[in-house]
Amino acid sequence: MNNKETKHSLNRRQFLNIAGTSAAALSVSSRFAFAGNFSADRKVRIGIVGGRFGLGFYFHEHPNCIVEAVSDLRADRRNALMKTYKCSKSYESLDKLLQDPKVEAVFLATPAPDHANHVLASLKAGKHVLCAVPAAMTLDECAKLKEAVKKSGLTYMMAETSTFMQTTISVRKLYQEGAFGALFSAAAEYNHPGLEVLYFEDGKPTWRHGLPPMLYPTHCTAFLISVTGERLTSVSGVGWGDDSPVLKGNPYKNPFWNETAFFQTNKNTPFRVEVNWRGALRNVERGEWRGEKMSFFMPQSEPGESTVVRMDSKEGLDHGGFRVAKNVVETYKQPLWWETDMLPAPLRHNSGHGGSHTFITHEFIDALVNNRQPLVNIHEALAYTAPGIVAHQSALKDGEYLKIPSFD
């Protein structure tokens, strides 16, 4: 390990302690492990399905992985997958790939409305599954996924990037160390203005046409759940739309461009989430954690620097001349966890979505090699996903306060 790595090093045992803060929330698995054996001889043979998002990962670099086959409905995307992963075998469909006896696991980087059905088909074929977000689009699909994973005995993981961003790893560490004291509120936002450019392709609507923002909530919900292990138990949701003709005829019957949800957790923590597709907004995925002793604010835009606010025992005057408790505001120096031995050497480089893609790659493969539950297993995936489904239902009912079912 070089000096730079030593400075920011967080070994696998330390990360087990850091990420294990959520372990008390569930007894169903030994979660948040990141405790693999990089020298293991086992090779996982994986199939990559989906030639867009599926191009951005590093299974071909992992010492315990072989990309056995790739698949996409389009020949040009299959060719791109073969080139990226240095793989000579491709299939025209997921169904055909699932018939390959050499493929033992699949990464489903397919359209969101297909995720549940694709996961169910893959589990039925006896394959372990890593799936893009969200896990499902309805509560019924959530229940079917939970039952199918339990019945199969196979490994399921959801590829949520916010969980593995460099900043989120740091916040988990701070939370475990007790730096925040008691968290009294949190917030998250995912702004993707201009999303309508993806609504149509070659004159035909895509799966994104009119997608309700809260049916894509996991980039936000992960910021709280993956840090504290809390569960979102109730919600009031509000939507904003402008009767735009662009939204007319969408398959979701969704009238909203933007949605805001006000959640409460099982620890009575208020948690505000915004998912916005249109407006004068900075494109960002960010979280805020506010505590009695310290608060942490991710930057308002990417790239940017996070801010830490700490309590001070001294008093001062506010802008109106009133006496108030002072605080200390400082820029947080973000460690580059991808440079450390949290990853196998070939994966110690930057990657997409805040350095998360190499971590997602490793977490799934290492979970299979070491026969352990991955960080975002089926229970976590549904805890990230289901609250958004209920939040959208609430928004359609003018903010009616609704309970969120548990899938633990």
Tell me what you see in this structure.
The chain has 408 residues and is an alpha/beta fold. The protein has helices spanning 3-7, 12-19, 75-85, 94-98, 115-124, 139-152, 161-164, 166-176, 218-228, 352-369, 378-396, and strands spanning 44-49, 65-71, 90-91, 105-108, 128-131, 156-158, 183-191, 200-201, 204-205, 232-240, 258-265, 270-276, 284-291, 294-297, 307-317, 323-331, 402-403. The longest helix has 19 residues, at 378-396. It starts with a helix and ends in a 5-residue tail after the last strand. The model is unreliable at 1-33 (pLDDT under 50).
Topology, please?
Layout: H1 3-7, H2 12-19, E1 44-49, E2 65-71, H3 75-85, E3 90-91, H4 94-98, E4 105-108, H5 115-124, E5 128-131, H6 139-152, E6 156-158, H7 161-164, H8 166-176, E7 183-191, E8 200-201, E9 204-205, H9 218-228, E10 232-240, E11 258-265, E12 270-276, E13 284-291, E14 294-297, E15 307-317, E16 323-331, H10 352-369, H11 378-396, E17 402-403
Parallel strand pairs: 1-2, 1-4, 2-3, 4-5, 5-6, 7-12
Antiparallel strand pairs: 7-13, 8-9, 10-11, 10-17, 11-12, 13-14, 14-15, 15-16
